[in-house]
């Protein structure tokens, strides 16, 4: 029996067709490279469409005091100083250009009175900073990039007579393995979901832009695609992952009705005046302002309410604390018995502003609740609770070039699949700008890498055959274990034992159970044939979900402190010593996850000087503070 | 708390199929897509169905529910009677791939044929200035989640395969309208283009597209009718009418036709080769079998005609002069010459 494999030649293969992937592909095509875009779903359906709030960029359109240094400070503060400082710096500096560029592609953001791009307030951002389109900014971003790619294809068509001559979108295609020549990327192997046919893309450079890992959790805002494919592909290719213990649980996901459990209620509901109340009707967030934030947040409801109209003379309401703080607060209220029946709290805008204003400011929220849940948010409160939303961890990359660390070359990563930019916690709005800034950089540097190559790496036939056997294995076990059951069991382990609040005992237990699941996944079966068979697709994805989950559980057990998206009940405080440490995951020869500690890169003098000493003293060790004082004394 | 409900789902592929019956548990507050997921997890793991966000934002789970084009994730089970049978079929306008999944390539082809946004000359990034009231009209159309329900329901193509080549459909009429109303778009021929190339004239305003739009975009009232009206203005303008009498029509409409993105419609081969079948019509030949009984693993398919360079992807042509070494053959001195020449 032989299997037909379609073979393609490209210069740059971009895996993932969300914001980061499309931006990288545009850049590679502009650099003259033959570019392939691999989209797990149809073109334009990426998870980026779910981003509601906006894209953070210090353009200073609404408050002219905003600039990249303030944005940099907010990002580092939000990430609890565990961010890769260079990534945070590049991001803050380049985000405005990336947003303005979108307008030349045809994007239509909401406007200020003087016709500039309007910017809105968001949790953790000192000034109004998020460029937005109502509450469907992610959709605007995807559509704009999608249409830019089409316009490039039209240029190619005019020149060559073929739309696909220089940039081709492989819709509904999944990559299962990266192929190497020594330590160089040589290609990617995968299958068309629609036909079940296999394809091999030979290319010296691969950009990973596959997004996150949320499908390993029971309650998640993520779509089925988020199975950690890029994380796992990178690991198997010899790259390393960092910060995998940090998962962001969005504080306000819908908890009722059950069919839409996990779906997000955008933070702008709070930015525009929405408040959180427990089942006693108490606005509880005032009890949860941590010391590090005490100075910036209001202490009374009166002051908080004045802030919406007069932000310069009042402190912000505690509902706008960074996401991890709000998620933990809600979690605690529910645990102590002050939650709703469905296990959430109330988020209310109905009593805070007139109905027309709600519909105007939050159109798709209004629409979503009305259609999906038959809830009218202008008349009644929403029921919300924490949902797994974003993974801060990901492929360890060089900040400037987005090239993956580890022993592999020719591999790049951008967007949610990369790690370091957001440290231990991501600010809302920073992901859309992150994927534009680093998507562009990844595309640019992947192209430069191809240019510098003397000789193209070659794909070995044996590797292709091995990848083929792995992909077909579930179909050859028609009576193997049901992939849906396995996924549910994995979600139970991760949700219950490696969730928002973690304990050493549970994490050890989780690791044991993940080992058991590994054996079961090795025996997974898929009934039916190769043509559009979702059971088979899931069976293949499971092994990626499992290895990434193992990274998360291992790193979560190792890090004995609580910081950002990682909360250990047995180690409740932040520990300055741990701030200096990155936990790095790699795969050893036997395919097991190997964890090691690496020092965090040290911030440059002129950047650390942007902070005042009292703030730094909450994060830095005594030695680091002495160093800081010496620097300031100069 | 769940009750058993009766579902009928179309199963099959392009070679045919039929409606199959399932009894599934339904819980309070669920939508049709939840039921499909339960079917996959418990009864039929290979039931093919597209979905992504499950929140009405991505437009993937388009299907026909009791004959009506809808999103599976936005159709609440509570909208049916307790004992009502729910029948789920794939979109009818597009070719079947498998079960509820159809081939929606038609839409992506039409997207490629719609001219893209033309940035205004001389306006630097960051210098774009637009009034909120002016962007709002286009913003309505940019809400589109590309679920293609409007394309599916439009009677111009729903049962008329033959109209597909000349008709872009409501989704691309609102794209044209969006660009037409964009305050800074540099092209001025969007309406003419919609009429001449997109088949706007086929639409006779039955508003079916508006009715099925899950984003409640007023496709007919806000996009199609304004686009038609102004096209009509131009066509019946007496001066234009006089112009048409004086000039040849292609001179008048040249800009719209010259920039057509539509692929070539030329058919077949002329001259001596006329009548020979296309290479794609010939039966494929089997690849040779290797010693180990397997065939070589790959066949070649490239995005461009002509295949890869025989010199490899690394070789730029023409060769730089410095890299070309050519020794002119000199009789008598040349040892490597053909042996037959030696005496």
From TrEMBL, chain A:
Cofactor(s) this protein requires: FAD
All copies of domain Fumarate reductase/succinate dehydrogenase flavoprotein-like C-terminal, residue ranges: 488-600
Active site per database record: 323
Sites where the protein binds substrate: 250, 266, 389, 426
PANTHER family membership: SUCCINATE DEHYDROGENASE 2 FLAVOPROTEIN SUBUNIT (PTHR11632), SUCCINATE DEHYDROGENASE [UBIQUINONE] FLAVOPROTEIN SUBUNIT, MITOCHONDRIAL (PTHR11632:SF51)
InterPro entries documented for this protein: FAD-dep_OxRdtase_2_FAD-bd, FAD/NAD-bd_sf, Fum_R/Succ_DH_flav-like_C_sf, Fum_Rdtase/Succ_DH_flav-like_C, SdhA/FrdA/AprA, Succ_DH/fumarate_Rdtase_cat_sf
Positions bound to FAD: 16-21, 39-54, 229, 416, 431-432
Residue ranges of domain FAD-dependent oxidoreductase 2 FAD-binding in the record: 11-432
Gene Ontology MF annotations: steroid dehydrogenase activity, acting on the CH-CH group of donors
Keywords associated with the record: FAD, Flavoprotein, Oxidoreductase
Native organism: Paractinoplanes toevensis
Highest taxon of the lineage: Bacteria
Pfam families linked to this entry: FAD_binding_2 (PF00890), Succ_DH_flav_C (PF02910)
Keyword Oxidoreductase: yes
Protein's name in the database: Succinate dehydrogenase flavoprotein subunit
UniProtKB/TrEMBL annotation, chain B:
One record GO biological process: respiratory electron transport chain
Pathway assignment: Carbohydrate metabolism; tricarboxylic acid cycle
Region named Disordered: 273-343
InterPro entries reported for this sequence: 2Fe-2S_ferredoxin-like_sf (IPR036010), 2Fe-2S_ferredoxin-type (IPR001041), 2Fe2S_fd_BS (IPR006058), 4Fe4S_Fe-S-bd (IPR017896), Beta-grasp_dom_sf (IPR012675), Helical_ferredxn (IPR009051), SDH/FRD_Iron-Sulfur (IPR050573), Succ_DH/fum_Rdtase_Fe-S (IPR004489)
UniProt GO MF annotations: 2 iron, 2 sulfur cluster binding; 4 iron, 4 sulfur cluster binding; electron transfer activity; metal ion binding; oxidoreductase activity
Stretches assigned to the 2Fe-2S ferredoxin-type domain: 5-92
Alphabetically ordered keywords of this record: 2Fe-2S, 4Fe-4S, Iron, Iron-sulfur, Metal-binding, Oxidoreductase
Needed co-factor(s): [2Fe-2S] cluster; [4Fe-4S] cluster; [3Fe-4S] cluster
Family annotation (CDD domains): fer2 (cd00207)
Basic and acidic residues composition-biased segments: 288-297, 331-343
GO CC term (a single one): plasma membrane
Pfam families given in the database record: Fer2_3, Fer4_8
Tree of life domain: Bacteria
Family per similarity comment: Belongs to the succinate dehydrogenase/fumarate reductase iron-sulfur protein family.
Name of the protein in question: 2Fe-2S ferredoxin-type domain-containing protein
Organism: Paractinoplanes toevensis
